[in-house]
Design brief:
Chains A, B: This is Homoserine dehydrogenase. Two copies of one chain form a homodimer. The first copy, chain A, is of the alpha/beta class and 428 residues long. In chain A, 36% of the residues lie in helices and 25% in strands. The mean pLDDT of chain A is 95.
C-alpha cells in the first residue's frame, strides 16, 4: 500500500463540509483512482462545536489555520476559508513555507496575490491548485491549463457568477424589478456577505482574471479589468433586449489584442438563441477558444456544496496521483506583464435613455451620436403616458470612448433626462 | 534546460499533420507550458512523398511503424494510424514493450483491446493516453478521469459522432431523405472509408465504451452495448418528432444499474429545447453526471484536424509535464467485469407504423399494445392519399422486451404493413 496523502482542511463551511463528506463516503474509490489513501489529518474552523452534518471526531483539530498548515502530518493544505487576505493568506503562506501543497477555492486571494503565492510555491517546489475557485464544479481550470495546452488561446468568455444570472433570469421570467429579486436572492442565501462581490461583478471578475492568466501566460491583473455590475439593469432593459432577440448577461471576456490584454466583466446583450443567451438560473458557462480546438463550451453548476467540493477533490486527487502543473500553467516567473488594453474592442451598443416628450428631442439625440462618430443601426421610441418617453438605440460598432463622448453631449441637449444606460452587445 | 520529450508520430493523415503543425508553430509555448522542449524525433506513414502541407525534412523517417515505436530516440509513440488491429496494434504493443508511453486517437483499438493494452502498459510502467479518441477537441476524457475523480459517476451521455448529427440535422433543415444526405456527406468526405462505422453507430459506440470504463471502473465492454445506427431514420420520423417537440439524435447513454452496466448507442428522441436537442451539425456534446458535481455539459468540435490535434497535444503535454494517470483512471487490474444489463431501463417510445386504411385497423394495433402491457400516451393517425396510413404512437414507459413482444403481435394483425419503427424517448 502506498503512503497516504494527508490533508489539513481549513474552513468547514458548505464546501469544507462537502469535502469531508466525499472523503468519508468515497474513501475506497478515491484510493483506487489515486493509487493511495486520501485521509484527513486535521481540520480547522472558527467554531468547533457547530453541527456541520459530518462527524469530525476522527480528525485532529486546530483552532489556528496557520498551525494546521504547519502540522507535520499534513501533506496538502486545503484552504476553504475565503477572504483575499487575513487568515487565508497567512495560512497559505505558512503552508508553502512548511513545504505543503495547497488546494484552494479562494478566487479573491489568488486574483490579488496569485503571482506572489505562485512564485513562493514554485520556489518551495510546491503546487497551488484552484479548480474550485472558478465556475464551481466545471473543470474549466483543468480544461484550459491542460486540455488546451497545445493551443494558443484566443479568447475566454463566460457567465461565472450564478447569483447574477439567477437575478437576471428571474427578473425576466417573473417580470420583477431588480430590487425585489435582489431581496429574494438575499433571503435564499444566494448572496455573499458583501453582496457587491456578486452583483458588482467582483467575484466573477476575480475568476476571469485567473483564467486570463492561464490563457495568455500573463500575471494575474484583476485591477486591469473593466468591471461593471448588474445593479443598473432594469426590467425595462431586459424586456427591450428580449424584443430585439437578446438577453442580458453578466459576461466576462478576456482576449489578447494589439492594444494589450482586454479583460471585461460587464453586462452584455447576447443573442437569445446562443448557448450563453439560453443559460438559465444559477448555471455557469465558460467558452474557451483556441487556435487549434476552435470553441469549446463547458456548462454546469457554478456553486453549491457538491459541485465546489467536487472541484476541490479533483485538485486533491491530482496531487495524490503525482500531477505537478504550475499554478497558472507555466512557471510563475515566465508569466509576462501584458499591459491592460485601455480601450476595449469596438462593439455595437444598446442605449436606453429617457427623452423629454417634445418636438426635436429625437433629432438632438441623433445629432449627438453623429458628432461622436456613432452610427445608428436601429432606433425606437416608446409611447408612454408620462412626460418623458424611453428611446432605444442600437448602434453600429463603436468604442467606449465614443460613447463617453456622446454621454457628455446628451447632457448638453437639455432633452435627455437622467443618465442613459449603455450596454455592450456581444454578438457571439 | 530540461531534457526534451521526443515523439515518434505514426500516421500522417489529417490529425498527424495537424500535430506536426502545432509542434512546429508553438514550440516555444509548449516548452514554457511543459517545462521541456517537445520535439519530433521521427515520423512514419504509408507514403513518404505525399504533400501534407508540412515540412517533414527535419524529422527521421521510418517506413515501418513498429520500427518507429522501437527507436531509441523516441520517448512517446503517437499512434494516429487507426484501425483496431494490424499495424496500429502491433506498433502500440511494440512501443509499450520498448518502454515508451503511448498517445493514441484510436477508439476502435482501445474499445476492442483496451484492457490488454492498459495492463501491458502498466506492467511496463508506461501510460496510454487517448483524449483524441473521444469527442475530438473536447477534453472529456480528462474531465471524466481527473475533473470528476471525486465523484461516483452516475451517468454518461452524449452525441459523439458528428457525421450522424450532421446527417440528422441536415435531413431536418433541408427536408431531404436519408439516402440523399448520406450521399452528400460522403461527397463532403464526412464518412469513414467504411460508412457503417459512422452511420451504424459503431464509432460512437467505441467512444462510449471507453468513457463507460472510466466512469464505472469497469473493463471496456464494447460487445455488451446495445447498438443501433441511424440508417432507418426517415425524414417522416424527424418531422413527426419535431411536431411533438422532439429531435432525433444518435445518443449514447451509459449507466450502472441494479441489472448491470447499461450501455446504449441508439437513435433517441430528445426534447427539442434541451441542450442535446439543440445540437446542430457536426458538433459533439457530452453530459457527465456525478453524485457531487451534478450534471456538467461539454460541447465542441468532435472531429477535424485542429480539434483532434489539440486533444493529442493535451496528452503529449501531460506526459511532458510528468502526469501519470492510469489509462482508464485506475489500475487496469482493478477494473471490474460488470455484467452487461440484458435489458435497458424502461422508457417511453415513439412508434411509427403503416396501417392498412380500413375499419378496425387502429383498434387491432391498440389491442396488441395492451396485450404487451404497453400503455399509450398519445396516438395519432395521418391521412394520406394512398392505401396505407401512417400511425404514430407515443407510449408510456415500457421495456424493449415488451416492445419486441408487441412487434410480433403486429405481424399477426394483418393490418400493419412492413416493419414498425420504434425509437426510444430520452426525456432529459
Amino acid at each position: 500500500m502506498n503512503t497516504p496523502l494527508r490533508l489539513g482542511i481549513a474552513g468547514l463551511g458548505t464546501v469544507g463540509a462537502g469535502v469531508v463528506k466525499i472523503i468519508a463516503r468515497h474513501g475506497g474509490l478515491l484510493t483506487q483512482r489515486s493509487g493511495r489513501p486520501v485521509e484527513i489529518a486535521a481540520v480547522s474552523a472558527r467554531t468547533r462545536d457547530k453541527d456541520r452534518g459530518v462527524d469530525l471526531s476522527p480528525y485532529g483539530w486546530e483552532d489556528d489555520p496557520v498551525a494546521l498548515a504547519q502540522r507535520d502530518d499534513v501533506n496538502v493544505f486545503v484552504e476553504l476559508m475565503g477572504g483575499s487576505d487575513g487568515p487565508a493568506k497567512a495560512a497559505t503562506e505558512a503552508a508553502i513555507s512548511a513545504g505543503k501543497d495547497v488546494v484552494t477555492a479562494n478566487k479573491a486571494m489568488l486574483a490579488l496575490h496569485g503571482q506572489a503565492l505562485a512564485e513562493a510555491a514554485e520556489t518551495a517546489g510546491r503546487v497551488i491548485r484552484f479548480e474550485a475557485a472558478v465556475a464551481g464544479g466545471i473543470p474549466v481550470v483543468k480544461a484550459l491549463t491542460e486540455g488546451l495546452a497545445g493551443n494558443r488561446v484566443t479568447r475566454v468568455m463566460g457567465v461565472m457568477n450564478g447569483t447574477c444570472n439567477y437575478i437576471l433570469t428571474r427578473m425576466e421570467h417573473a417580470g420583477l424589478p431588480y430590487d425585489t429579486v435582489f431581496d429574494e436572492a438575499n433571503k435564499l442565501g444566494y448572496l455573499e456577505a458583501d453582496p457587491m462581490l456578486d452583483v458588482g461583478g467582483i467575484d466573477a471578475g476575480h475568476k476571469l482574471a485567473l483564467l486570463a492568466a492561464i490563457a495568455f501566460g500573463t500575471q494575474v491583473n484583476f485591477h486591469g479589468m473593466e468591471l461593471e455590475g448588474i445593479e443598473r439593469i432594469s426590467i425595462d432593459d431586459i424586456r427591450h433586449a428580449a424584443d430585439m432577440g437578446f438577453r442580458i448577461k453578466l459576461l466576462g471576456v478576456a482576449q489578447m489584442t494589439g492594444r494589450g490584454l482586454e479583460q471585461r466583466m460587464t453586462p452584455c446583450l447576447v443573442p437569445a438563441t446562443s448557448p450563453l443567451g439560453r443559460l438559465e438560473n444559477a448555471t455557469n458557462m465558460v467558452l474557451l477558444e483556441g487556435d487549434a480546438v476552435g470553441q469549446i463550451i463547458l456548462r454546469g453548476a457554478g456553486a453549491g456544496e457538491g459541485p465546489t467540493a467536487s472541484a476541490v477533490m479533483s485538485d486533491i486527487l491530482d496531487i495524490a496521483r503525482g500531477t505537478r502543473v504550475p499554478t497558472f500553467g507555466q512557471p510563475a516567473r515566465t508569466l509576462t506583464t501584458a499591459p491592460a488594453a485601455r480601450v476595449s474592442t469596438a462593439a455595437p451598443y444598446y442605449l436606453r435613455m429617457e427623452l423629454e416628450d417634445r418636438p426635436g428631442a429625437l433629432a438632438k439625440v441623433a445629432m449627438v451620436l453623429g458628432d461622436a462618430g456613432i452610427s445608428i443601426n436601429r432606433m425606437r421610441q416608446y409611447r408612454h403616458a408620462r412626460t418623458t418617453a424611453p428611446v432605444l438605440v442600437v448602434t453600429h460598432k463603436t468604442t467606449r470612448d465614443a460613447l463617453d463622448h456622446a454621454r457628455k453631449g446628451f447632457a448638453g441637449t437639455g432633452v435627455v433626462v437622467g443618465e442613459p444606460v449603455a450596454i455592450r452587445i456581444e454578438d457571439i
